[in-house]
Amino acid sequence: MRRIVVTSALPYANGSIHLGHLVEYIQTDIWARNQKMSGNECVYICADDSHGTPIMLKAKELGITPEELIEKTYDEHVKDFKDFQIEFDNFHTTHSDENKEISQKIYQSLRDKGNIVSKEIEQFYDNEAKMFLPDRFIKGECPKCGAKDQYGDSCEECGATYSPTDVKNPISTVSNTTPVTKKTEHVFFQLSSYESFLKEWMKNNDIQKEIKNKLSEWLEGGLVDWDITRDKPYFGFEIPDLKDKYFYVWLDAPIGYIASHKNYCDKNKQNYLDDWKEDSKTELYHFIGKDIAYFHGLFWPAMLEGAGMSKPNGVYCHGFLTIDGEKMSKSRGTFFNARTYLNHLLPDYLRYYFSSRLTNKIEDIDLNFDDFMTRVNSDLVGKIINIGSRCAKFINKDFDSKLSSEVGNEELIKSVLSRKEEIIQNYEARNYAANMRIISSLSDEVNKYLDDEKPWVKIKDDSTKGHVQTICSDGINGFKFIIGYLKPVLPEIANKVENLLNCDSITWSNIDNQLKDHKINAFVPLITRINKESIEKMKEENNEMIDLLKELVGRIKKIEKTVFDNDNILMKSGIVTIDSPVPAVVQHTDVPDSDTIAKMSWDDINDLVSRLGGD
């Protein structure tokens, strides 16, 4: 039996879960469920990423504390994940005692090894907002490739990382002004000391070829010391012995994996260090988006090495999600929150569809709603679920719900069971799309057998009626095997089928047990087809929200002495300042629906204006 700790990237605690996020969580959840079906001890860990300037500013704008904001977001995330059947063994927060303790211990270990150095640096400062600017609150042109509208720490076009002060034509996204530079004292992690280790680690662990190539390219370019400091004001953990200095969120965020696991272990009377110590036999795997490979492929393993802890055995990257061939965008109506989807459609549909598209390659996947509906209705409902419906109705009605003691078609049973090991390995290798093709093909075999035998005809003839029990029992067993193959993807449907068939919980070790001379329960519908109307209603709800927000943006324009300049709000009045929360501005106006506007943050409004084309 293997012991495994697996993680998904931590969702940021200032926004809702959307369909793009769910690609990763569904991918990881399927992988973890496969491990558990194999009898491995697999612990699926995650947490909300709850620190950083964006959270601090959004809470201020909403007139609440950061703690209140992250608590509200946490509750929303937990519910969304639960309703999408994402089965974390522990979902925690990085704003926790465990994370503070472990972050400080790792920092002290790195400092004791001489890997922490102090430097005086020049950093961008926003004179209007009266604050030093984190990397992500600076935008400008990439100093390497010249791409515009890039963040202050990395370029989404060429993948380069750099110092914020290297950005060309920088702009503060807080006030939309040009920042100035000020000197400040920061501590750095000497990442450059770990180049040899990182090359060896990459060579010996499971990292996709494309990511290895990119990491090697970064290594060949030379690693620079990593600034792990942020100045006050900041929402996070203070650095020990340094006044008004805080850990950069990317230091304590991945440590949140360990902290969440410690929280799990404490609740289950285990010692988390048994899994994180240098010589631990526990396997560690991270599922992440391709955009954060730099942090998980360089900073994180180097930190763990410096702290004398276990390193990841694998880092698995996935691509982005597009909707109907378009980048996710609110203005185009292709940006869907998890809850908007759930208001109209079942989570099983999306779990199945994503599985039909996911491979172990770093490729973007497209959620095409026409293909989504066709594939779910044709393959999942029409082929797979229909097997159970076709067979159970005869067993229930004509044979007192009892399966035959005989097998009518041994070759069919052998054929379906012959793919088990291949399917297990495909799940292990994250090649889910191949499994969905295999399962669809096996369903065709079972359906062909039923079509050839025509139980609906034979049931009417007393001389052949008895054969129907055997035919449909073969179909029920084939259905059981196929649903077992789908259990990591469709856990709730699998549970319903286990109840219907009155059988043990299906695992990889017992999946090939055939049900003979066995009573089943009355068949109940397991899932319905997607109708076009549900998809359209989901889109309508999404578009109605966008239309409402467009109207609100128009009304916000009328806020007294507030103007829009280059798609950003600037406070031009002495009545309010750039630091004023939205309610403080709205109370000075007669704008209709001001209560609704007051619930928004300036960050929300800025985002809306830029996305919706306001000027």
Report the end-to-end length measured between terminal Cα atoms: 60 Å
Q: Give the number of DSSP strands.
A: 20
Structural class: alpha/beta
- Give the strand content: 5-15%
Uncertain regions spanning at least 5 consecutive residues = 559-581, 583-594, 606-615
Instruction: Let me know the largest β-sheet.
Output: 6 strands, parallel
- For the largest sheet, list the strands in their spatial order: 3-2-1-14-15-10
- Average pLDDT confidence is 89
Helix content range: 40-55%
How many helices? The count is: 22
Q: In angstroms, what is the radius of gyration?
A: 28 Å
Broad shape: elongated
What keyword list fits this structure?
single chain; 615 residues; alpha/beta; 22 helices; elongated; disordered C terminus
Structural features, described:
The protein is an alpha/beta fold and 615 residues long. It is built from 22 helices and 20 strands. Strands 3-2-1-14-15-10 form a 6-stranded parallel β-sheet, sandwiched between helices. It has a 4-stranded antiparallel β-sheet with strand order 5-4-9-11. The chain starts with a strand and ends with a helix. The C terminus is likely disordered.
